[in-house]
Automatic annotation (TrEMBL):
This is NAD(P)/FAD-dependent oxidoreductase. Belongs to the FAD-binding monooxygenase family. It comes from the Bacteria. Its cofactor is FAD. SUPFAM superfamilies: FAD/NAD(P)-binding domain. InterPro entries: FAD-binding_Monooxygenases, FAD/NAD-bd_sf, Flavin_mOase-like. It comes from Actinomycetospora straminea. PANTHER family: L-ORNITHINE N(5)-MONOOXYGENASE-RELATED.
Length: 548
């Protein structure tokens, strides 16, 4: 390993792509813990990733702020010093937090901003990756680590006539930094996922009229956002060791305990009280009330009906309430948004809900949105239409492995990975929060840290053993894919047409992209693989073909 950060960018130990939570922590571990020469390439002008790009009104986290952050793995001092102002922090506050991390650990000096990676090819003779950028640079490194995020390539549906629209249009994932003033405007919002649910109440307060185009209603859960009091902040800080330990053990990386009981094992009235109590606490607590909500359809239906009734209580017009109440998929088989006043928005005079499942969008016209039922004239269109998740950004990197095999081709029939972190024929490539790892089915900072720490420990091991190449075996990969599919099949998750299964992108291979076996279980498997000398990986020394 080199002693200092190399200034010769053609001889890096490791190249990291992306400077969000993942890339920042990865750089810190590579450079400051391992002493490797490392460089981060980032398309944006600054750090932040998700929180750099998603600046739409209402954007905030729905993991609670106190655990939507780096843990004691990064710094106990920072945990003590940083105080979140709200239970669910806003985008500007999370961005400020990540900027603070970058400053505190002096990370920016090894990040090249405004640099988009367009190709990455493995040279099997040299045992190195060569990365090309939009600016025409070529940079080589022994290890390539993608930290490009699961939700960083926007999905802009290809509606006929989309480019003919004469007004202004925006995608929430590429929101203008200067903000948008909708005062007095007629605004169309297409999409009612977590993003639309946050944005719509905010825009409705400003615009003359908002027309919401909904294809699938969601089971939105009350967020229960509130300011963080001094007392709460102190209690959390004192409890952090236990909190972080819990996040690493639980199924979803939240420090919440799931009740050890099934939904149908309790009488109806008791179950109702349990749901009400969880509802009153706000956030994803509702998902912790029973341990079979994701496994058993009848159990799931009890929570689904509870949530439908909440919508019916809050939305005055019964017809609109029924449009908003999901009936075509089980609860939590699409990611449930957290909402703060979303349903009440439909009681406003200036908000119209259009059901585009019944009456699909036929075209975007120069003056608005046309469905089978007629045209809605608007001044602006907001596409809250989500992302080509998990693989979209990876494919855009143009990664080619041994023999020129492209990652997109290899995964054409669905991702094939070992532990969601590496893939055969792509030596020395590590994918942070890749498909078939818990990633988006978890509180992500916890999963990000686990991946980064595992990769860092692996690189240390390779160095100590004089190993220059690491690559999963075909057998290990086949085994992981089979395990992933088996676990997936035990749940209700494949039931819905969600982005978790790639259903939002026309032509995308359908499979459950994240791993649903649980954050704690997954961590145990990864630790076990490491403890057994990186079982399932072929490790080879320089020039050697024999395993180390
Ligand atoms: P990102 O933050 O997506 O960063 C990836 C970076 O890679 C970006 O800066 C991007 O510009 C860069 N990049 C991509 N391609 C290239 C390229 N070709 N060349 C150079 N750079 C490139 N998760 C939770 O757990 N809890 C939440 O409450 C939560 N809220 C969310 C809210 C929104 C609006 C969204 C969109 C996502 C949310 N997520 C949440 C998921 C969120 O993406 C992760 O929590 C986390 O921020 C991901 O960090 P990351 O560093 O892995 O990826
Ligand atoms: P999303 O969940 O994929 O929602 C996109 C919305 O656009 C859906 O309502 C979808 O309808 C609709 N849509 C897509 N294509 C369409 C088309 N051709 N015609 C009509 N409607 C169309 O995306 P998102 O809301 O941006 O959220 C993505 C993920 O980011 C979330 O699940 C979450 O993980 C994260 N996120 C978190 C928060 C938070 O609260 N912290 C906020 C925002 C995002 P269908 O459902 O029918 O496909």
């Amino acid at each position: 390993m080199s002693d200092a950060v190399s200034t010769d960018r053609s001889d890096l130990d490791a190249l990291v792509i992306g400077a969000g939570f993942s890339g920042l922590y990865m750089l810190h571990r590579l450079r400051d813990s391992l002493g490797l020469s490392a460089l981060v390439l980032e398309a944006a002008d600054d750090v932040g990733g998700t929180w750099y790009w998603n600046r739409y009104p209402g954007a905030r986290c729905d993991s609670e702020s106190y655990f939507y952050s780096f843990s004691d793995r990064l710094s106990t001092d920072l945990l003590e010093e940083w105080t979140w102002s709200e239970r669910f922090a806003t985008q500007p506050e999370i961005l400020r937090y990540l900027q603070t991390v970058a400053e505190r650990f002096d990370l920016r000096r090894d990040i090249r901003f405004g640099t988009t990676v367009t190709s990455a090819s493995w040279d099997d003779d040299a045992g190195r990756w060569t990365v090309g950028t939009a600016g025409g640079e070529r940079i080589t490194a022994r290890f390539l680590i993608t930290a490009v995020g699961c939700l960083s390539t926007t999905n802009l549906p290809d509606f006929p006539g989309r480019d003919s629209f004469q007004g202004a249009w925006y995608h929430t994932g590429l929101w203008p930094h200067e903000g948008v003033d909708f005062t007095g405007q007629r605004v169309a919002v297409i999409g009612t996922g977590a993003t639309g649910v946050q944005l719509i109440p905010e825009v409705a307060q400003e615009a003359a009229h908002v027309t919401v185009f909904q294809r699938t209603p969601n089971y939105d859960i009350a967020g229960g956002n509130h300011p963080v009091t001094e007392d709460f902040d102190r209690k959390i800080k004192d409890d952090y060791p236990r909190i972080w330990a819990r996040t690493r053990e639980t199924a979803f990386g939240f420090p919440y305990d799931v009740a050890e009981r099934t939904a149908l094992s309790v009488p109806d009235d008791e179950r109702q009280v349990i749901f009400e109590e969880a509802w009153a606490q706000g956030g994803f607590r509702l998902g912790t009330t029973f341990n079979d909500l994701l496994l058993d359809e009848d159990a799931n239906e009890t929570a689904a009906e509870f949530l439908r009734n909440k919508i019916r209580e809050r939305v005055h017009d019964p017809e609109i309430a029924e449009m908003l109440a999901p009936k075509d998929h089980p609860f939590f088989t699409k990611r449930p948004p957290l909402e703060n006043g979303y349903y009440e928005t439909y009681n406003r005079e200036n908000v119209t809900l259009v059901d585009v499942r019944r009456s699909p969008i036929e075209a975007i016209t120069p003056t608005g949105v046309r469905t089978a039922d007629g045209e809605y004239e608007v001044d602006s269109i907001v596409y809250a239409t989500g992302f080509d998740a998990m693989t979209g950004t990876l494919y855009k990197l143009g990664i080619t492995g041994r023999g020129g095999l492209s990652l997109a081709d290899k995964w054409a029939q669905g991702p094939r990975t070992y532990l969601g972190i590496a893939t055969h024929d792509f030596p020395n490539l590590f994918i942070i929060t890749g498909p078939q790892s818990p990633s988006v089915l978890s509180n992500m900072p916890v999963s990000i840290e686990q991946h980064v720490d595992w990769i860092a420990d692996c690189l240390r091991h390779l160095h100590e053993q004089g190993v220059e190449r690491i690559e999963p075996t075909v057998e290990a990969e086949d085994g992981w894919v089979a395990h992933h599919d088996e676990v997936t099949g035990m749940t209700l998750l494949p039931r819905a047409d969600s982005w978790w299964v790639g259903a939002n992108i026309p032509g995308k291979h359908r499979s459950l992209y994240p791993y649903v076996g649980g954050v704690g279980v997954y961590r145990g498997i990864c630790d076990d693989v490491a403890a057994k000398g990186y079982e399932g990986f072929a490790l080879s020394r320089a020039e050697a073909t024999a395993p180390a």
